[in-house]
Amino acid sequence: ALCTQIDHHIRFLIGTLRLEGTLDDTIILFTSDHGDMLGNHGMVAKRVFYESSANIPMVLMPNKGNPRVAEGAVDDRLVGFVDVMPTLPDLACIDVPETVDGVSMLGEVRRSRIYGECGEDDHATRMIRADRWKLIYYPVGNHFQLFDLESDPQESKDLADDAVHDETLAELTASLIPELHGSDLDWLCDGVLKGKPDRPYDWAPHRSLNSQRGDGWPPGPVVDIPQIEWTRERDSSWPANQ
Q: N or C: fewer beta carbons within 10 Å in the chain?
């Protein structure tokens, strides 16, 4: 139903542009700020770095006759929101300022990895993706998850504790550290990620269809209750509804 609603509004937008006579001169980029877990990993909503939440649509429709985007073409390069701004002026043949952080999704430059962050301090999660590999870092408890998205696109097998992949884990961790800033730097000790002390979790059924595991760790138990809320052990400063 949600996808049908999106299709309807896109159809309405394109139809309006066509009626106004401006469709052929319009560039459309369809994207989203996040996905939705939709029950995967026993979760709904967002705020985690599993693919269902972090992997978003990035669909580009050029103005008519623009040869830089082939009809039906698929590009598997790593991109993010930061690349939207340089892509649109590039496609419109406008010079892209050198001060932008992103790169055009139509250019020859392809990043080898991409970094993501969500939350701060005790509620932080950090991620780095390089080709087929994804590292997710939870500073509270100093927990890591490592997934091979080529052989395990559903992220069902965490390889962080598999000695066979120690080198990959170390390489991605080394790439993650330079991205840290602000209070994230408190997670380092002599340049090594040490994180923060762990805290216990409580879990309970949650009926609101927006349940979420507190700080994203640990993975939820396999139970018959479809909606699970994971939260950190509360203290007196936390609102009762969190």
A: N
